[in-house]
Amino acid sequence: MDSSKKFIIVSVSAAILLIILVSCTLAYSGRDNTLMSDKSLHFEINGFSVELPLSEDGAVYDAVSLSSVTENKIKLINETGATVKVNGKGIGAGTTMNLKLDSLSSNELIKITVDNEKDVRTIYLRTLSSQLPQITSAGESSYEGHYYTALSTGGAALYELNNKGEVVFYIAKSPEEAKGESYCDFKKHTLEDGKVRYSYQRIYGDDEEIGYASGERVILDENYQEIKTITLAQSELAKEGDPIDGRDFILIDDNHYIVAASQLVLVQNVPESLGAGTMGSKVVRTLIQEVKDDKVVFEFTTDSHPELYGLSVTGNDYGNTASQSPDYAGFNRMIIDPADDNLIVSFENLNTIMKIDRETGSIVWKLSGAGDEFGLTDELKTSGQSDIELTKDGYLTIFDNAVSSGQTRILKIKLDEVNKKVLEYHEFKVPGHKSSANGSAQKIGDEIEVYTIGWGQAKEGTSGISEIDFNTGKKLLEVTLPQGVSNDRVQKIK
Known about the structure:
There is one protein chain. The chain is mainly beta and 494 residues long. It folds into 2 domains: 87 residues, no CATH class; 358 residues, Kelch-type beta propeller (Neuraminidase), CATH 2.120.10. The strands form 7 sheets. Strands 15, 16, 17, 18, 19, 20, 21 and 22 form an 8-stranded antiparallel sheet that branches. Strands 4, 12, 13, 14, 35 and 36 form a 6-stranded antiparallel sheet that branches. The protein has a 5-stranded mixed sheet with strand order 3-10-9-6-7, with no helix packed on it. Strand 32 and strand 33 form a beta hairpin. Pfam families: Arylsulfotran_2. This is Arylsulfotransferase (ASST). It comes from Acetobacterium fimetarium.
């Protein structure tokens, strides 16, 4: 064989060998040996999608949700062609790791490194989202339980606080992520079988026709992972999937619950003396719906009780001259009375709290308002009340915004329901604290006068939550929020 042919054979062989070596090296490494400035990491953290650009080394980002009371589930969605580590622990595409955080703090960061041997990026996640407002706490509660609430103004966020007022769990979205949605009525449920559930209202960002926290109820398991959402069930009064009202929700077990909805309807039963339209009146009625095993077992509507129209003090434009959707009743709270399994419901625009028979839908009694049946004087009646609770020893507690007098107060009342008499009436006021809406009050324990108070849309100061011992006149815990930011209802739950 001549030398030229040998040279060609050797050159071709060398080229083939080089191609094989390069291919094997790339196959072995599985790496993308390019700069990562135009790439992103896609995570799912506690069920929420999070995209983290790698354009800036050392950048700090927010997670939508993190917890220090349970492990956080972090899943890497996309293939990066690089080694990815979260707090020093490797994670591959499509895999999930559990991350335990001892605390949530603006000073605590989660470190994420991305290395493809040619380029390295280090980025961080805040453990406490910058989308949460500045929460300042003083004092410490000696009574068991955590505080659950959501922002009613100031962003799309909900959070849980421990007895020191420290955030231990949150969901918080930026305006771009929220796209108009917000949250309310975040709370914990302990079911009869001991299961723990959490729930909150996800308020639709594109539904402003009626408002009233219209959206869906989100149910979380004991690890704060979303397991289902709830809307209205099919019935003669509702379509399946119609939005529900977020101002309250009762979870009895995983397949048994009570919801409420605000529905715009045209009615023909408004008395002419109240200025009803000649062809009917458009009103917002309250629908209360109980569902068990996917079947509606009870429904109540305010418009089926025409006597309520005349009790309204707000939203009673029955001629629709100024409003095409007057909310004449103003539902805001409901609880089950364990003594008879009936519902006690608060309607702020009627200034009335009433008991509703959970089988027949009849109104058993009305407390306060123009239709009061317990002999309350005008001074004792509530005005725009926004929360009710029942203590274990049978007292009804009320957060009374007292819009007629301007002095917010907490009431504790003992009723004789048979004879419709007030047996005890206690009133608590806090100097310098007034609220116009969304306030709440909850008695802690039965033998003490300690209350957890959520100030809602406070008219004075920046207090968000107070825990007060009215026996001693001392505050045990005070949580403040920035000016212009307010909480929805606050509940303390063990």
